[in-house]
Amino acid sequence: MAAGIDPRLDELRGAVIRTRIALEAYRSPLTDRAVAERELAVMESLTDGMPRTGAAARAAQAADPEGAALRHSLLMIFGALGSVSALTPELGELRRAVDRFGVPAQRVPAAGRS
After folding, report:
1. How much helix, strand and coil, in percent to the nearest 5, is found in the chain?
2. Of 20, 27, 44, 102, which has fewest CB within 10 angstroms of its CB?
3. Contact assessment for residue 35 and residue 78, using Cβ atoms and an 8 Å cutoff
């Protein structure tokens, strides 16, 4: 890896690629396969547009307009594939990679709790 390159980008790209490969290998019919494939493509395109080094990367991290889009894509992918136990390792890796960007997950309080 070249000096100065944000390792989170490489981690996220790798997680997207491994999730795509696992999804392609999972040949059973999935109602929302197209949704997952589309959102993986969105995640990949977002990482291509993120600055990789220096001040530009730090500024992007502070503003993080892509962070919400990454979290949205992750939620869509989990909605489409979350019940497929064969993909659990890849989905976990993808979630950890998105979490490294500091995008806070939205917590919904349980009913009756504040």
Report:
1. 70, 0, 30
2. 27
3. no
